[in-house]
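Lab meeting notes turned into a lecture example. A postdoc, R.K., suggested we walk through two folding results consecutively so the class can see how the record format repeats. The first protein's sequence and structure tokens come next.
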Amino acid sequence: ITYVNSEADLKAFCGEHGGAVCTSSNARAVLEWAFARRTRAFFFPDQHLGRNTGARMGVPLERMPLWDPRLPLGGNEPGAVDEARIVLWKGWCYVHQRFTPEQVRAWRERAPGVRVWVHLECAREVVALADDAGSTADIIRLVEAAPAGTRWAVGTEGNLVNRLAREHPDQSIALLSPEPNNCITMNMTTVEKLARV
């Protein structure tokens, strides 16, 4: 299973070899589809999305070994992959990797009553401290349904958080991190480039 933001060649390779492409919204459904066909899934490039989704599905953490491509057997003991349910590629989204447990704790101290919501691509330790975690679509739906006066610290891409704050001025919506976390890759896609395609 590969994430939709992977390169086209990787997505094509997955499809050619009986795999699939997922988004953060349908990662669970795609893993369920995979488990109906095979004993285990190889999930890349984002270990955190795979781990957090697997954990929500009841897959024990010890059955989700990390595969480091630079190490023999991915850095695992012999047989670890045979016992795995999900093998996680040692990769991550650099935007979501920057959110930390300390940032969640700082918001809790600084703004009692704030709701912390993070993306499933955040590290497991961050997800565990947040009020909840979900996909980009989940975050948007949650904010849209929230009453006026709701206070949020959101751990996801900065442009989305800023857009939500502009669209919902009756709520207090801020980025979880004190530093801007904008995705350079997504920002390379412009209206002009789309028109050229």
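The second example is placed directly after the first for contrast:
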Amino acid sequence: ALAKELPLCTTYRCAKSIVREAQAYVSDFEAGPDNPEGEILTLGVNLDGQPNGETLTGIAGPGDFILSRVNAPLISIAMKLLRAGKRTKIAGRAFGEGLISLVRKLKGRSMPDFLAKVTAWEARELRRLEPALAKAEGGRKNTILQKMDGITDKASMLSSLADGAPSVSEIESRITALFTDNGLGDKGLIVCSSVHKAKGKEADRVFVLKDTLRTGGEEDNIAYVAVTRAKLTLVW
């Protein structure tokens, strides 16, 4: 006898409004009949203030997720939240340890020297991948482009972490304070995370940095994951 295919397309976790938003990426996604309605909200991207007085820094609270396709935008957001007196972590201790290793490898003697070395490192690493990118096709090309995105992301993160830091050692201290593996699911914290790191996790309210998302192919899958981390409220 032929096996019967039973698709897992119904969620009993996400609110109906969030499911409708996710259908832009996965058309056959459905909400359970008893799921709550939930809500979709939009907040401007200016973190320092909006005409209506609403800011991400002011609204986000314990248990919320703030998601981005890449890590770099999360640095300035997390630091603003910490300055506002809100407990905040960026998910991914291993990623943080990798950043510290890179800081030490660059051996910046001063802040201007460190920033110059970050710029030189980014240019050198991207240039190293350019010949392979020119020859690559299909999946191999996408893999190389992802590596290049990761290099640019790390360089941007280090520049953000260096903002206002009096010394290179302070950058390491900031990384140690911000990055953790146990942030996701901790109700006492605001958790900033890449979409990839948040896969399989959930929160009642999730803020998604929409401008960091892309469209098409695998990028639609990433957007779908971002949207469906929210159980009740999704804030673009």
